Amino acid sequence: MVAISSGAAVDDLDGQVPLRLLVLGPVSLLDAQGKQIALPAQRRTIIGALAANSGRSLHRDELCFGLWNDYSPTHRNRLKSQVAQLRAVLPSELSIEFVDDGYRLSWSAEVIDSIRFRRHLSTPAAADAEQHALLANALRLWQGAPFQGVELTLVDEAMHTLTRLREQAVLDVADVEWRLGMSVHSIPALQQLHDHDHSRGDVAGH
Questions:
Q1: 9, 30, 113, 184: which sits with the fewest CB atoms below 10 Å from its CB?
Q2: Residues 5, 17: Cα–Cα separation, whole Å
Q3: Could you tell me if 117 and 162 are in contact, meaning their C-beta atoms sit under 8 angstroms apart?
Q4: Residue 94 forms beta bridges with which residues?
Q5: pLDDT digits (tens, 9 = 90+) for 115-127
Q6: Rounded to the nearest 10 degrees, how much is the dihedral formed by the CA atoms of 64, 65, 70, 75?
Q7: Can you tell me the distance from the alpha carbon of 80 to that of 73, in angstroms, rounded to the nearest whole number?
Q8: Which residues are within 8 A (CB) of 61 and not within 5 positions of it... i.e. 6 or more apart?
Q9: d(CA 52, CA 147)
Q10: What is the pTM for the complete model shown?
């Protein structure tokens, strides 16, 4: 059975290292014991924006304008202070680097749920049962709409991409369950997709 709609755990179910940053739902930072680290709204927004743009540096002015609609020296200093306080509570697997006059999120292990979700989807499967397990692990990571609590256009592209990937994963897991002769546990999630987007004929057809 695939728990698609909610209930992602701090640890993935395939023996990987514990997650430290969650963005597939409310943005949350977790400590070494898996407990949520309290973050003021601006620091939560910064870590969410950096995660959404993982692999590239976000210029200071982009972040300042997104947070305060201004990129004056005063707000650059405010951003520097917020980043310093965020760095002070980051788990050891995560770091914020200053690169090309901006900030970039780096990690030493696969501790961000969106990165792990993409890895599950991209891992080749030799058989339907293996593909089902990969899809199940991917979908269990979701706890709601991605990047909740981050009101920045800097996360829009990642939000759209991840949402579409999840929609396709729901369709794929339903197909695999059908081929394996399993009860199609993904039917409620399929109905949610159909209700959300009536133009999706592939959803309505299941």
A1: 9
A2: 23
A3: yes
A4: 107
A5: 999 999 999 888 9
A6: -10
A7: 10
A8: 71, 76
A9: 8
A10: 0.83
